[in-house]
């Protein structure tokens, strides 16, 4: 019988908060149970195991990111859309480092296909349609943008740019300008 007041949603939210505090790798059913001051066994009527919890946190993070991205992209195109999408990822990673890491969890194909990850790909392609890229260039560009944005954000979160000039924000803008220029140059004539 499920413990009164405990729901999957509350457990996942607590797991997501824990991930932001101590890191996604440190999230376990045991750690969440300690947050609620309950025995681990009482959570197994809601969650299968720690992998199930982490998968649910990943799905939450993907949904949150997709919602923020959709809001930020509304009515934008070109560099403005590129900067808006990139800014959402960077801001989310800064605000929720554990959830950002969770959004990178490898999901099984069925779970991935039903997740908000599909919306992320659609929004990335919508940004790229503003540059008029045909296939297969569009797929290459999705991978390029994902790699650059995730790489920069990950290095920044790890403190990789904290000890040198120019400021990381200056480099961020420079990178977005160069990406915009590259994507513009790929537009078919």
Describe it for me?
This protein has 189 residues and is an all-alpha fold. 68% of the residues lie in helices and 0% in strands. It is built from 9 helices and no strands. Helix 4 packs antiparallel against helix 7. The relative contact order is 0.11.
In short:
By secondary structure, this protein is mainly α.
Query: What does the average pLDDT come to?
Result: 94
Alpha-carbon distance between the two ends? 65 Å
Proportion of residues in β-strands? under 5%
Give the count of helical stretches: 9
Give the overall form.
Answer: globular
Low-confidence stretches: none
**Which structural class is indicated by helix and strand composition?**
mainly alpha
Oligomerization state of this entry?
Answer: single chain
SSE topology string: HHHHHHHHH
The rounded Rg comes to 19 Å
| Total strand segments | 0
The share of residues in helices is 55-70%
The biggest sheet amounts to: none
Attribute tags:
mainly alpha, 189 residues, 68% helix
Indicate the topology:
Elements: H1 8-22, H2 29-36, H3 50-73, H4 78-95, H5 97-102, H6 109-113, H7 117-129, H8 137-157, H9 168-185
Helix pairs in contact: 1-2, 1-3, 3-4, 3-7, 4-7, 4-8, 4-9, 7-8, 8-9
């Amino acid at each position: 019988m499920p413990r009164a007041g405990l729901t999957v949603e509350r457990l996942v939210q607590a797991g997501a908060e824990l991930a932001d505090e101590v890191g996604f790798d440190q999230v376990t059913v045991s750690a969440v149970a300690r947050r609620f001051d309950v025995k681990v066994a009482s959570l197994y009527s809601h969650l299968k195991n720690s992998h199930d919890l982490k998968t649910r946190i990943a799905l939450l993070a993907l949904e949150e990111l997709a919602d923020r991205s959709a809001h930020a992209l509304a009515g934008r195109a070109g560099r403005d859309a590129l900067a808006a999408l990139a800014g959402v990822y960077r801001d989310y990673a800064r605000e929720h480092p554990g959830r950002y890491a969770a959004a990178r969890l490898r999901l099984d194909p069925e779970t991935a296909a039903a997740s908000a990850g599909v919306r992320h790909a659609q929004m990335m392609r919508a940004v790229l349609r503003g540059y008029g890229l045909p296939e297969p260039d569009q797929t290459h560009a999705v991978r390029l943008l994902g790699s650059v944005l995730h790489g920069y954000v990950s290095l920044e979160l790890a403190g990789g740019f904290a000890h040198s000039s120019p400021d990381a924000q200056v480099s961020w803008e420079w990178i977005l300008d160069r990406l915009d220029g590259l994507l513009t140059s790929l537009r078919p004539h």
